[in-house]
Amino acid sequence: MENPRSELKDMNDMVCVVTGANSGLGKATATELARLGARVVMVCRDEGRGRDAQAEIKAAAELARPSRADTVDLCIADLAVQEEVYHLGETIRANYDRLDVLVNNAGVFLDTRRETVDGIEATFAVNHLAPFLLTHLVLPRLQETAGRVGEARIINVSSEAHRGASIHFDDLNAEKGYNPLQAYAQSKLANILFTHELSRRLEDTGVLVNAVHPGVVNTNIWRGSGWISRIARLFAWLYKRPEEGARSVVYLAASPEVAGVTGQYFKETEIVNPSPEAYDEKVETRLWAVSREMTGLVEDTPDESPSE
Q1: What was the pLDDT predicted at 222?
Q2: What's the CA gap between 199 and 17, in Å, rounded?
Q3: How confident is the model at residue 230 (pLDDT cuts 50, 70, 90)?
Q4: Per residue in 291-308, is it b (16+ CB within 10 Å) or e — as a string?
Q5: pLDDT exceeds 80 at position 233
Q6: Residue 250 confidence (pLDDT)
């Protein structure tokens, strides 16, 4: 589906945070949001790559809107490290008096099991716990913005890979055995479960929460060293270019058609039903509680609405 910018909102003065913004889908999303006039906050792990991408995005923004070239900011954070996610959340709250869009895009596909410095299996840590934690940390700013201007949006990048997966509460750390495809699929299911639960908790606040499968996109996530990554690279010519995949994310961030739409799973720009496992409210509630515990969030954090 084509989404000409004429069909999207003018995002002048809006603030958009995009994680994993130095390459692939995140970079393409950040570029398009900057072209639409938004102040884009890029979240990148590597400062050198982040600076290079920032310069490219600034140049693209300047071509579209000559007065907007200085509205691309860079934050450095390794989302696998919870201390850095906490610091990132504090930085965003301190430096920006509004937050209109949060795009939780950063993700990994790991051929072998790895643990983060926090002792957590890295696929689950980066793909689910990091966006879960960052969202909580910046939620006050999203809610304040929605209260002032009527709306703010959270977009969780998920995947059709979630189908057939389940949440292995008895082995979230994959200590009993690691399968890269299962680990990735579980994390993408967790994104949708989180989307559903958060949307219920934010009902009537003006903060919209949706998940999206942008299509199979040719990004760095497939550039590992194992056999799965090698096979994936063989079929890279079939994948979407990042600019094509970004259309669905930008659609959720900027389309007037999404106003009031929350708690949905999009396949590109169409609402579809996720797997039956994604609708299990008991699993959603349990995953929420476990995720809070694993990220060190206290139960009386005043930044979320009750689920009842």
Answers
A1: 46
A2: 19
A3: low
A4: bbebbebeeeeeebeeee
A5: no
A6: 97
Tokens of 277: 């496992």
Contacts 24+ apart (CB under 8 A), 7-10: 7/255, 8/36, 8/250, 8/251, 8/254, 8/255, 8/256, 9/36, 9/254, 9/255, 9/256, 10/36, 10/37
pLDDT band at 303 (very low <50, low <70, confident <90, very high): very low
251 in catalytic set: no
Q: What is the pTM of this model?
A: 0.89
State yes or no: pLDDT of 260 exceeds 70: yes
Provide DSSP, 262-273.
-S-EEETTEEE-
Q: Tell me the CA end-to-end span of the chain in Å, nearest whole number.
A: 37
DSSP of 190-250, one letter per residue?
HHHHHHHHHHHHTTTTTEEEEEEE--SB--GGG--SSHHHHHHHHTGGGSBPHHHHHHHHH
- The length of the chain in residues reads 308
CB neighbourhood size of 205 (10 A): 18
Cβ atoms of 155 and 101 closer than 8 Å = yes
Q: Which amino acid is at 224?
A: G
Of 40, 32, 52, the residue nearest 13 (C-alpha): 40
Compute the mean pLDDT over every residue in the chain, rounded to the nearest whole number.
89
Check: CB of residue 225 under 8 Å from CB of residue 192.
Answer: no
pLDDT at 296 over 80: yes
Structure tokens at 259: 């106003």
Per-residue pLDDT reduced to its tens digit, 85-109: 999 999 999 999 999 999 999 999 9
Domains and CATH numbers, the chain: 11-295 (3.40.50.720)
Single out the catalytic residue among 178, 184, 251, 265: 184
20: left (phi over 0), alpha (psi -120 to 50) or beta: left
pLDDT of residue 100: 98
Residue 229 has pLDDT above 80, yes or no: no
